[in-house]
Queue: 2 jobs
Job 1
Amino acid sequence: MEQKVKWSEFIKSAAGIEGWIDDDIPEVLFVGRSNVGKSSFINALTNNKKLAKISSTPGKTRLLNFFDINKGLFRIVDAPGYGYAKVNGKMKEQFSDMMNQYMETRPNLKLVVMLVDLRHKPTTDDLGMYKYLKYYQLPVVVVGTKLDKLKQNEIKKNEKMIRDTLELKPSDGFIKISNTDKRNVNEVYDEICKRLEVNPEV
Ligand SMILES: Nc1nc2c(ncn2[C@@H]2O[C@H](COP(=O)(O)OP(=O)(O)OP(=O)(O)O)[C@@H](O)[C@H]2O)c(=O)[nH]1
Ligand SMILES: [Mg+2]
């Protein structure tokens, strides 16, 4: 696979507004259920297995993690996953406060990539997240992960199930990927660059 991301670097983690970076670089927020493959995607895209931590204990991180892509072309913001049963009420509250604050007030936020597992019907949490993004009129690209786990005859069927369940708008992109075999990972990069109106060739 051609390597489109020539440079990537972990910048910092932040729990709230005091940790955000004060500049004009556009940010792409990655949201999705715990275990869907947000961190794996960041590693697949950057061809760096160690960049984002792939956690064996989901629901542990409560921070937003900022990554530089191609020296200031844009930043990826990796968010903790939602829908993890073991987080208690207090942690859930902290999570949503942090996420709401970021999504509702961050001027750098230009695009949200929402990841869903291609094998499953979107959950109530997924629906809630999608509705929330629409309510705040945030541009969304939906990325279906774990394409490698689907049988050929499930691909179209599952895409339709996800589109119908979320009631996807025609303006929202939908890209099916595998972080394992890297199928369509570069397509997500191209779509991000298109939405941000930045030059993908660096
Ligand atoms: N087969 C397959 N496995 C994947 C794919 N993407 C991620 N995984 C696996 O799914 C598990 C969770 O991946 P993560 O990238 O840590 O998921 P996450 O969304 O960052 O999870 P949280 O950080 O808990 O929110 C890991 O075991 C990955 O190896 C994929 O496209 N195909
Ligand atoms: Mg993660």
Job 2
Amino acid sequence: MTQTFDVIIVGAGMVGAALANGLGRAGLTVALLDRQTPPAFHADETPDLRVSALSAGSEAYLERLGAWSRIHAMRLTPYARLSVWDATEHPLSRLLPPGRLRTTFDAAPLGRNHLGHIVENRVTQAALWDQAGSTNTITRLTPVDIDSVSESGEGVHLHLADGTQLQGQLLVGADGAQSAIRQMAGIGVTRDQYGQQALVASVRYAGAPQDITWQAFHPSGPRAFLPLHADGDHSWASLVWYDSPARIAELRQLPDDAFLAEVTRAFPADLPPLQALAGRGSFPLARQHAKTYASGRTVLVGDAAHTINPLAGQGVNLGFQDAEALQQLLVEARRAGLPLSDTALLQRYEARRRPANQRMMLAMDLFYHAFSNRLPPLHLARNLGLALANSLPFARHQVARYAMGIDDRLPAALQPLIDRVPRPALLR
Ligand SMILES: Cc1cc2nc3c(=O)[nH]c(=O)nc-3n(C[C@H](O)[C@H](O)[C@H](O)COP(=O)(O)OP(=O)(O)OC[C@H]3O[C@@H](n4cnc5c(N)ncnc54)[C@H](O)[C@@H]3O)c2cc1C
């Protein structure tokens, strides 16, 4: 027997599950599928290796979906300050006024008590999954193995390996960077591998959670600290160390004690004394963009459509913006009596999201190229840039508002810089 829905979403990651909730709350019938059931949250577990800095914009969106209070009830860590600086050792650094090389964004002058929250990915996913389970227009199906996808005048048809057949008006690929739905729809990607990888480690330190997240830029890549929740008299943090694949492989193989000693040696003095390591893992970094966001009755959201360098932690924030834009258009279409797979509607979705996603990719490339080298003129220029940002609170506030997801455009003053970043063919 075939089960029929308005929308079938493949991928119950953070983005797919958010979209399901948005559509389900608006009265559309949704099937939310994943190849694995999202794990339930347990308060005594050590932190998930994958964490995300969720912007104020994402917080407001998750609140509209009814999921934020669930995240709050599990665990999250607010941060009120965000600090970045150039850690390259260079004689030219002496030409710059000491103390001016660090740019710190602060929530207080923006009239807020936090800039964002660090949340473990599995917490966000579990909150959205549970919220979907309490919405009667959403059917959750896990674990699924998709055999084939086909289209007819009636709709899109999914055949699952266990014999289940599903039909929908629209199929959403929210199945991540390696999206099978994207491949089945024949949508290609442009892809560029960065020369760096990211090693992520969950570490414990003494004292209460710090209210700051920071990132020091080294020529081999940034080193970042993201505060996590308290655990008795201790607190957890997520550290990210970007470096060459060879260096990351070396770091991964060190015994725990030697690894912590190496982190302590290599990270800035701002790092609190470390006590324990709960886990570490590494991720390759690639910028990838689908050549089109929609084909026939299939449309892509989140990492299935685009991946960016995570150095400013914007990937899932962009994915949430995709999900909300698509939700608005689909709900409008339903009200207007239009088919949900209407070509003009899917083109409007792409027109709304592609330029914003591309802008963020270019901004990340600006940082990547400007900081991942030792060239003296660039060293001086980027430090002057940071010093300038420090002395112009207005510019700093604008950048902070963009990073928080309050404004969706970069400050105009930064656009000429971004226009000068070398662009691979894929971004033109
Ligand atoms: C080191 C690192 C740090 C990052 N830090 C940040 C940060 O601070 N802030 C931020 O915003 N972003 C960050 N990101 C990016 C962020 O993690 C991703 O953008 C986000 O996870 C994408 O969510 P998604 O739901 O689109 O895809 P995914 O999280 O990849 O979810 C895809 C889902 O689809 C399911 N699936 C896959 N294939 C199938 C299939 N064939 N059938 C059924 N189900 C399937 C999977 O099981 C999964 O549940 C970081 C990324 C990295 C690598």
